[in-house]
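Notebook B, p. 112. Complex prediction, attempt 2.
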Amino acid sequence: MNAIEIKELTKSYPVGFWKKQLRPALKPFNLNVAVGETFGFLGPNGAGKTTTLKLLMGIVFPTSGSANILGKDFHDPEVKKRIGFLPEQPYFYDYLSAPELLDYYANLSGMPSAARKARIPQLLERVGLGDVGSKQLRKFSKGMLQRVGIAQAIVHDPEVLFLDEPMSGLDPLGRHEIRELIQSLKDAGKTIFFSTHILSDAEALCDRVGVIHKGELRGVGVVNDLRSSEGGKSEIIWQKAAALAAVAGDLLESHVTGDMVRATVAADTLDRVLDKLRQEHARLISVTPLHGTLEEYFLSRTTDQESVQV
Amino acid sequence: MTSRISAITLNTFREAVRDRVLYNLVVFALLLVASAPLFSQISIGMERLIVVNVGLTSISIFGVIIAIFIGIGLVSKEIEKRTLYTILSRPVRRWEFIAGKYLGLMLTLVVNTALMTVGLYIALFTFAHGQNPGDPRLLVAVYFMVLELAVITAFTLLFSSFSSPIFSAIFTFALFVIGTFAEDLRGFAALSHGLTKTLATGIAYLVPNFASLNVIGQVAHDQSISGRLIVFNTLYVLLYAGATTLAAIMVFERRNLK
């Protein structure tokens, strides 16, 4: 079953003062995210990631298209009891303390009073804010606010989580902690849809990613597949620099250190290069397959080209 | 539904209280009590008239100022600071949010007005012995002020749902001034002719009639207030504030929150 189904969703905004014209912020796209999946929505700033999330949260209305969350129309209030949302760079009511804020949000999500009282102290402990007491949010650091943001998104124990740039603006330690938290939610079987432009986070956490650029979904695929499809190269290290001349034409690049050679070859020429090296009586040290990085895939999709569905 | 609206109502009230708005009013009430001896010195025998006039007028003006200044930010601040994002991603309907905000500000205003009224009564009991200090008509005048605030709050909410705080304040204040002179506008309409008469009549009946909600002069001069006026004003405000809040909801229901 799909937790999220996006069907031909589009959003255009009117621009111009007098003669208003519609400028597309999001071109029509389809996307399914399975229950329990962690999906990374990648794209540079201004690509349409936040617009997509705002549409799914009912903050802006789609120009056309629709979406289902957990099998129901995304505007259905019953659906909203089962989802959690962390906006980008969240700002909360700074006159409230963290327990008050969580109580307010849990109440709005329909949690009974007794359940709220039991849940909130545990949750604050879980996000590392067990000792904040009644301190008002105005006195919180950015990292602490981000933790409060995650806490408010999961206070009602939702099945699907939407996180908009959850790690942005955090120091390395803060990023690590939030990443651990998301990993624990993933392990607990939650469906997580998060937007980011930090590719290492997506690579570490996501089962699948989608790349959006200029309001257009440019590619969707399984992270491991994308990495191997973008790679397909191998690194060979051998001893006998004199053998380099025999294989130079088949190498992508090579470095010589004394009598040792380190070279990169494409998958389709690997066997030929190895045969020639044997014929040259070179001493083979290692052959290591090289994986492409998500960054390479991301860059390939965000250069202007035809849309690609992987 | 009720629990969501009441949660938003209480949070709006809590925000106002923690913004220290109420403290200003407590200071006002104390100032009123403290300044009362001055009135008795400059107007011998007319202490009650002066204290009632000054007190009720102050309550009214402070109430309007607070309604406008808190009201204009009720919705726009939530959009600007994006706190609304985490509200609308929950099972909260947009109309529930507007209703909660409206009731939250009204609760704040009622508490403020009640505190100031207590201050006024203290002033009256202290400095106007034997001059009908416990006059219940004072409460009718205060009740009318609350009715006036109910309309003003609805307008701030309407303007705040589509306009910036500055413009919302200007629009609401302009409407308050026009509404205060609604009776004069009706008088002018009756004396004019042609298109002017049609326009003036239309505007006079469209703008809120705050003049009929002002009975400060009558109370200060010990004149009676008819029960019919109380019923009429209550119904008028219920309809007027209800329609204005409905308009605010209709605007907000369609709004894209960028």
